[in-house]
Design a protein that fits this description.
Length: 168
């Protein structure tokens, strides 16, 4: 997993415009420190613990079996990575839970967290604008800031549970 490469080499990351998806999941989280230039967006949209059952509906049984093993391997690697960096793996899916509760998932392509919440989670992150942007002129408005609540912090999902949601 690329996050291990970043973590093992103690890489300091600079985000100029956008760090989203795998960049947010593994580069941002694995970095020794992160500096966000003015207008930089960091956005998450999911990870190995999410429910992929909608995507699996049209797969053949043979393809579902192959996907189940592949997803189990991915989830195991992702879990080991987050255990190694001592951060909650569930942060990769908190936005999905929040948008389901607030019923506006179609409006949010990505979610982010406040600088204070990221620091409280143990990330060494600094922003030139003193906060993470949710919009910039290069990519538009693509993110929402998700408050990290005690409810989210207490949420837990195992790889086994994620696979059951996806394949049962």
């Amino acid at each position: 997993m690329f996050g291990n490469f970043v973590r093992d080499r103690q890489i300091n990351v600079v985000v100029r415009i956008l760090c989203a998806s795998s960049c947010a999941n593994y580069v941002f989280t694995g970095a020794k420190s992160v500096y966000l230039e003015a207008g930089a967006i960091v956005g998450w949209h999911g990870g190995a613990l999410q429910d992929y059952s909608d995507q699996m509906k049209n797969f053949s049984e043979e393809n579902k079996l192959m996907m189940r093993q592949s997803m189990a391997d991915w989830c195991s690697e992702e879990s080991a990575f987050f255990a190694a960096i001592n951060k909650p793996q569930e942060m990769l899916i908190w936005g999905q839970l929040f948008s389901q509760q607030k019923n506006y998932s179609d409006e949010i392509q990505l979610w982010s967290y406040s600088l204070m919440d990221l620091k409280n989670l143990g990330f060494d992150v600094t922003a030139e604008d003193k906060e993470i942007a949710v919009t910039n002129e290069k990519v538009g408005h693509i993110a929402a800031v998700l408050p990290v609540t005690s409810k989210l912090l207490s949420f837990s999902r195992s790889c086994k549970e994620a696979l059951e949601l996806t394949f049962n």
